[in-house]
Amino acid sequence: MAASTFFIPPVNKIGMGCMAEAVELIKNYGYRQALIVTDRVLNEIGVVGTVQALLADVGIKSAIYDGTNPNPTTINVGEGLAILRQHNCDCVISLGGGSPHDCAKGIALVAANGGDIRDYEGVDRSAKPQLPLIAINTTAGTASEMTRFCIITDVERHIKMAIVDKNVTPILSVNDSALMAGMPKGLTAATGMDALTHAIEAYVSTAANPITDACALKAVTMISNYLRRAVEDGNDMEARENMAYAQFLAGMAFNNASLGYVHAMAHQLGGFYDLPHGVCNAVLLPHVQRFNAKVSAARLKEIAAAMGVEVSALNDTQGAEACIHAISELAKDVNIPSGLAELNVKEEDLPTLATNALKDACGFTNPIQASHEEIVAIFKAAM
Fold it and tell me: What is the spatial order of strands in the sheet that 122-123 belongs to?
């Protein structure tokens, strides 16, 4: 086994009502002026105002950037950076799901390192730590509040850039399930399936280790047990809290074992058509695992067991098939579209998407490396 490094924010608050304690922690860091990076919806429904008031109570002023797109762009990073500089902010607070977190990471990284966010595409390209980032999460989810991954759409090239950099890791993550209660069904389903994808891709990754395996399998079990409930009833706080823990565990897994072709391919769909990331992952996940089963059948059988499937009488090949079936059933139960055609993906674009997917850093740890034709074939199977 190769040596491994384990990345995680130094402090992580999780659980119902933990936001109040998190504000005390933020106060103790000594920051005076924050840039809150969020989206319009959270601003309009008053979540941003609530957080601003909590910060004001402990003497922290804040400016707001609420222009984050669902797939944050190079333009969003530039706009947020302008507000940060205008107000001389000494820290960044992201509020929302993966989109504001990723946008905030881009802003904080460029604020400290200079240049353009495009300069940091790839692995560990920055010279120094970003401006301190506190990530307050409202979805369960992308786990972007605790990872070193930052995905930004380059509007000129129509691709999603994967920035994997220890310097974009937040200093504090906050997962208060009370902030997740209002999440709509579709978003709950998509972000939950994103978390499942993180766990499964990390478990079959070539960089998996015993720590990431433990996190991934526990995440798979919890998502299998609680996602349907969280989608069915957004006010089922037991389900919400368990999904918050599950997505965090999945984040711990992929932040250290990395991902695979599901993400490498989903990033292209998101960058090209501006589609929701979690939905793209959910549609691709069974098809990529069918491709991976050539080398990962034993691991996929273990995932099936973690999902609650009785696999003791099955061989590895049958166990892998049972895993793929269980993934598809869960996706169907939470109303994920059945294929990419439903998302208006066009067959003539697949060769271009496949070319770009093979360049995405997330694919490098897929358990088996694919040819261009094989990636196109997986896209076709997912149509």
Answer: 122-123, 159-164, 149-154
